[in-house]
Amino acid sequence: MQQAGRYQAILELLEAIFNSLTPADKIINNYMRERKYIGSKDRRFIADTVWDIIRNRMKLEFVTKSNQPRSLLLQYIKQFTMDDPTEIFSGEKYAPSKLSPQELELLSTENDEPYPPYVEAETPKWIFEKINDVEFLKALNQPAMADFRINVKNRDKVISELVSEGYEVEPCPYSPIGIRSLHRISLGNCMAYQNGEIEVQDEASQIAAIMCDVNPNLKIIDYCCGAGGKSLALAYLMNNQGKILAHDISSSRLEEIKPRMQRLGIKNIELTDIIADTDRDFDRFILDAPCSGSGTWRRCPDAKFRLTPEHLQKLNQTQSELLDIAYSKTKSGGRIIYITCSIFKDENENIVEPFVKAHADLRLLNLRSLWEQKLSAPYPCHSNEYLRLSPLSTGTDGFFLAVIEKI
Q: Which CATH architecture group holds 146-200?
């Protein structure tokens, strides 16, 4: 493809993404699937540029005083590339339409106005006001490295195999079952992945599974398990013994777990979208609560622009309701493990604290002590009651975990 044709594709994708509630990765994947004539190098350039514009959207909007994709793309080319915007926007076949007089004037105008903190943080203003930490939010705007979980006993052996395949990998700093790749890995070409020796999972999610403190003798449910990543990790930690009930209200999501179970050789997970009324004796009720997903913005930076205060409030109501279900289903002596991939206190401490206070037979477990029992790496948090992981503090996705014991 000519460079102008690449930028026309980028413009089409930006217009689709900005005008849809569909996640950007799905829009990009569908766009590429429908245009098989686009070569691999062109695909990489187009996708990488779209993501780069999304990660710099607040700055581009601030400079241009516009939220229109064409204006942002024009400013991006001017500010971040060596390409000549007048050559790109030529109006020729496969190129973006010719620049207007107003756009030419914009190109010649320099804006030296300093960025407000929320723009510097690349975060919508209402979100910044909740977090109020520029460096934290900037870390959450950087691309994430690829983390994997081993599905065999010897991590060093798997690392050696991956290195022999030509991949640059290293152990994760906290998770004893984690491997971090410093570059992208094509899973279709990776023998360790195809053979079920590794599984894609961020280190924070691996740690959450470890902190569930499971064993084959416990009655366990992974409630709202979604894609099933933690269920699969729990199965590995239990040596494929005992039973894990993986629950989700979406039967289609549960179906998507089956090929992963098959590739990994997992046999101790039972999938269900219904919990029996008589099931009130779980030893571990793992609640992977529906949340904003704000802790995963490194991987999906477009999601921050789809989130609204109203949706966050609805999530809070759901989270409280699900904790009530967890309470009714957990036996005395059992534990409720509340997990979110959220950075907001609204979804974390502000949900857990009133829940625990409302029940005299609940107490928060000391997570520093639990961590030191399960992991050899230093405990990374100030609080003993809440585990908070983030790209700034631990180099992981943003994660929250609380373990609530029913006395």
A: 2-Layer Sandwich (3.30)
